Amino acid sequence: MKAPPNGAEAVGLGDPSRVIRAATVLLDRSGVVTGWSPEAVRLLGYQAQEVLGRSVDAMSAEGGEEGLSPRCTSRSVRAVTLRHHSGRLVRVAVECHSLPDTVAGPTTVLMLTDAERLAEWQMQQAMLHGMATQSPVALTIYGPDLRVAWANQAAQRELPGPFTQYLGRSEDELHPGSKALSAQHPSSVTQIMRGVLDTGQTVVGLHHRGRSPADPGREHVWSLSYYRLQDAEGRPLGVCEEAADVTDLHRAQRRLVLLNEASAMIGSTLGLERTVQELAGVLVPQVADFIAVDLIGDALAGSELPADAAAGAGDLCRVAHRSVREDLPEAVVAPGHEVGYPRGSPQWQCLSSGAPVLNAVLDPASPWLLDDPVRRARLNKLGIHSHMVVPLRARGVTMGVATLMRWRDPLAFASEDLLLVEELAGRAAVCIDNARRFHREHTSALTLQRSLLPQKLPAHAAVEAAYRYLPADTEAGVGGDWFDVLPLACGRVGLVVGDVIGHGIRAAATMGRLRTAVHTLADLDLPPEELLSHLDDLVNRLAEEAEEAHPTGVEGVVGATCLYGVYDPVIRRATFARAGHPPPALAHLKKPVEFVDIPAGPPLGIGGLPFESAEVDIPQDSVLAFYTDGLLTASDADTDTGLERLSFALAHPDRPLEDICRTVERALLPDRPRDDVAFLVARPRPLPAENVATWALDLQAESAHRARALTGERLAHWQLHELAFSAELIVSELVTNAIRHAQGPVRLRLIRTDNRIVCSVSDGSNTSPHMRRAGAVEEGGRGLFLVAQFALRWGTRYTHDGKIIWAELPVPGP
Predict the structure, then answer these.
(1) Distance of alpha carbon 341 from alpha carbon 588, whole angstroms
(2) What is the reported pTM?
(3) Which of 101, 178, 403, 656 has a Cα-to-Cα distance from 518 of 20 to 30 A?
(4) E-only strand ranges, 548-631
């Protein structure tokens, strides 16, 4: 039979009749039924004797629809509606064939089938035809021996040359070296197919990486699915492989993963160099074979950057670089050194325009390379073929450039690579700018810290001291804890430690104000409890000022604690008062460590409650320890455990103070304390008895002469003859002032320290002396004026039973 015209075979019944059993009806030239097959009985319900000899139109549905009367001159297919024997309507597809030369005369053959079943079959056929010729999914059928038996056109395009040469090969032979990206499946595709053939279990969405015979120079990723083919009785016929090239999708997913990883990796600290190294670690080897990151010098210094970034092209410094090889063959400049790029180079262009420069294919004859023979020789030696320069730009300012190169990866940089690197460079640039700004703020914070805390404890004859200061805000370097050793009158020394609640710059600023106030109040020679009362008033005023300026309380002073003590080396006693602060520890040479019992006053800023002091004898060779509560709780321990550890660390106080500090650090401090920690260890030194002389004086005028004589004799004993005149004058005026304006008892005391002679006169009056300018004709009124002229410094200290007026003279050097 002659082949049907194009398109007819797809819908004809010649082929489907072998799949869908068609009904056959024979008609004569007038449309009378002359033949009726058993399939026609099943399709329309009429028995042969009911329709033979009758017109076929009798079965047509009412409504004037075209019936089955033959009107075909050639093979054709049409759909009609017939009435079933039961009365229901049946939609059938009719294929008409004319047979002009038969024994019975011209005959028409009608082949009928259910229209819905025919449409379904046609759809399946069209689908199979499309999968074989038009589908982008590569289909390959492997026989029971798991060797290639058939492939559609998409699969054949992956295999160059005649397809017949690949018949009988295994998948592993078609794509040698391919590997599964998931560890859940065997790396060999043949093993996977063997499992599918044996078990019938389908494998879906297996990602494999390898190289295609049609594109051996580029690595591809395929999504593979496998299912078993079997006959109607379930016998396996082979395995069908569906393969979709998902290389671009896989790379897009890798870029997303890389972006997510970069979000966690880049900017993990506020260290500028660390941030640059993190950027390099993300891009190599995932994107490039080599990266170099160069920053403008002002960016490294934390300074403001010029608006014209090209002006800084000559001031670039290599901060970090990274390569797929440990020996860094691409590097021309080492980190920390200046980088020189010639004018017109991609780096110069990038800084000038703020836009990236992509040389997907690097031309070794580029003019900028001709001006840079060192880099040109390195590029040629390694075979670097692709080059990209991306600016590090944030907040409208370009801080540097990142240069990426490929030489091991055969693929050139593409536009999607540039987009990825720009995104990562943009994120890194923000972190670098934050680090740059932090560096500037950090420098300011450290300057503030140096101005707020003692950089070196003053040398004092009465005490030897050592300390540690560890702010919880290690990034800023400052906190709210402080300590001090304050030289006081008459050879005494003040010891103070305090803690402002909170961390960082705000707490440090408050601490600085309180520390300054302590210095001022200590100079007034106030008793410890009075000093804390004045400090409490100051904290209340600061809180009120802050509340008025910031009603939300964000900038307010939350509170503070303080411990203040005065040690007198003459009487070997110390007086302490505390405001909500832990008591000092006293380490004895032959007894356990003692935590001094001092009345616990309220924290500073509470107001309304008095502070009390306590006097403590300080044995020789003992050590005092002052600390903030952060020391006791630094190691996640409770206060009692912290006190036990501190007692252990302070044992054996005859050790050097620095050794004691190191022991305290090891026993109580982790690497990063959660709270500010400050502690001060001091070894009080009593003055030798021969360095102190005390005399009681009568309340009469002759006592001034006696005081001068006693002073001269004592200075001669100390071999300080050159101070005799000044000291005798000062003592005479002080004693005379006490006799005239105060009341007894009057005592004269001379104290010799390492570099001072202290002359003090005590009396029983609380009257405050003051210096005035005497008139030209007045005989008196010049005593304190003379004392101020000859003394290094002088002042008044009040006691429980009167006052002490003192003056200091410097001891001349050897």
Answers:
(1) 68
(2) 0.57
(3) 656
(4) 560-568, 573-579, 585-587, 594-595, 600-601, 613-617, 623-627
